[in-house]
Amino acid sequence: MDLPSQDNISLTSTETPPPLYVPSSQHGMQKIVDPLARGRAFRMVEEVDGYSVPQTPITPGAASLCSFTSSRSGLNRLPRRRKRESVAKMSFRAAAALVKGRSLRESTLRRAQRRSFTPASFMEEDVVDFPDELDTSFFARDILMQEELSTYADEVFESPSEAAMKEAEPQQQEDETELTGSALDKTELEKSHLMLPLERGWRKAKEGTPGPPKVPLRQEVVSVNGQRRGQRIVVPVKKLFAREKRPYGLGMVGKLTNRTYRKRIDSYVKRQIEDMDDHRPFFTYWITFVHLLITILAVCIYGIAPVGFSQHETVDSVLRNKGVYENVKFVQQENFWIGPSSEALIHLGAKYSPCMRQDKQVHELIREKRAIERNSACCVRNDRSGCVQTSEEECSSTLAVWVKWPRHSSTPQLDGKNRQYGSVCHQDPRICLEPASVSPHEWPDDITKWPICTRYNTGNHTNMPHIDCTITGRPCCIGTKGRCEITSREYCDFMKGYFHEEATLCSQVHCMDDVCGLLPFLNPEIPDQFYRLWLSLFLHAGILHCLVSVAFQMTILRDLEKLAGWLRISIIYILSGITGNLASAIFLPYRAEVGPAGSQFGILACLFVELFQSWQILAQPWRAFTKLLCVVLFLFAFGLLPWIDNFAHICGFISGFFLSFAFLPYISFGRMDLYRKRCQIIVFLLVFVGLFSGLVVLFYVYPIKCEWCELLTCIPFTDKFCEKYDLNAHLH
What we know:
- The protein is an alpha+beta fold and 732 residues long.
- The chain has 21 helices and 15 strands.
- The protein has helices spanning 87-99, 104-112, 138-146, 162-180, 186-191, 237-240, 251-256, 267-275, 282-302, 342-348, 360-374, 465-468, 489-494, 511-516, 532-535, 543-564, 566-587, 597-613, 621-638, 646-663, 671-701; strands spanning 20-23, 30-33, 125-129, 214-218, 311-319, 325-333, 377-381, 387-390, 400-403, 432-434, 455-456, 474-478, 483-487, 498-499, 729-731.
- The N and C termini lie far apart (123 Å).
- The model is unreliable at 1-28, 38-76, 114-159, 177-209, 211-228 and 725-732 (pLDDT under 50).
């Protein structure tokens, strides 16, 4: 086959350059070599399996007359035999490296590089300079036959002049910096697929000569972030969980109030600021999750109380223990936080003094009720259709009989003893088997000390009127102060009380156990749920209350935890909340309080302490102090509204102030300042322990009653603005 000459072949900018080929002298077949094959240097055909092909330059025009297969294809690539290099060959390679301005060591290292990924497709789009003719220099040809580059074949592209290279080098480095984030050296730029044209070639273009035509190539981009072609795309996990440095003395509040450092700061202080650890807010995320979860469960289980700021009244006609219907009014405090009622919050673990200690007022109410019940007896209707345990004044003398020992003639003695108190509806020591009234466990004369009888030795007729009648009233615990009343189940349900079907007397039930819930008291007569001091920190009065806490924690608390760490900030948070709840339990014992109000004001105190500790490095510390003080005073004024506990705010802030001096990290401004701050830690820890111990003594040992103290938490602008909360039933 006759090959056309090179003069008859013309290339345009839109045509793919024809491949080069080498004629075979024995078989007349052409071996096609693609000069644009990326990832492989331009190699001449070697002796393969007995066939020898002359290594002569090939004219590009011959490729237009035959079909070819690219040298990039793995189908026609045969393995070649590796031979030992001769001394002359190694000398030629060293000389070629010197001509190109490289050291022999660099050339050897580049030749040793191998791709660890599949070469890119040759059908790639890009614009490169295609040379007019190929250089047949034996230096370049010999070197390129041995090298395996990680980018385009250098022989195909023509290099710019040295002056142009020097001018373009700074701009090229800037471009590489934008793509990769750091400047790469010259060797790395040569390896990158983004470098077009390459800095090496067979010869330099003549100055003033128009450049070669542009040949469009299809480029397959694997990664655009400066990574090498073919590398795996790595998810930036570290960036997702990167720690955001919290500047000491500034923080989120400092940014909002435009705090700045002084222009001149000592290098010793600067080094301390830079060396401070930056923590991740694990405690903030945990406490926020717990608050949300408990609030959702509380609303789903206990429902939502009437919403508002006053008292909600419900009136209905209810069947009471006398067998007639009566109009009854039920009064309940409204909850403006959109959440459960106060009774439900007490059941969940709210701060409530009668559940944490033996309250004198509640204890007196229970004792008075037992004294009245001791003198009660069973009031039996004449037709024996019903009976109820009541006093003589409440038992009708015309419609019923008040069975009282020993005045009742039918029972002058019981079990051989003269009894002064009784009778009791549906309970008698003569017919009870469990627990039986036998020596030495005889039932006492005082009926308020009788146990609950669980098994009777009787039928329907015993000839005892207080046993054979139908009982219409049993104990019901109503309200939050342990008030017990013998009444019907219908009335008890209307008053949202706790009805005891198994008991017959109020002295046989413990209403404060029902009111408080949670774990039962060790001694039923003495409440001991002191753990409410910290349990209430995880509760909220409603949905709005929880959202306020979440907003505070995800801003202020999260910001401070980055500075102090989860351990220190959790100590300040919990101890401040406990101290605030303890003070609130002393001065407001009958109000059910929930929420981390004391903890949040303890965290606000941390901002003041951090401001004082960084006073010398801030540009305008007095201005920052004034802004922060205005915010805290506004929050204290907000606590004067009803149902917002200002005692928890004040004592939580004070305790948080002392704890912050002891636990927050600090910077020192010299050796004396360092010793002073170490002594300061010990002093403020002792002050906090003294404050907490004093509050414990006031709560458990010497309880106080302060009437005017309530003005600190609510100012009565109107008659009912600070009306005290209590559950009461009113008859119409």
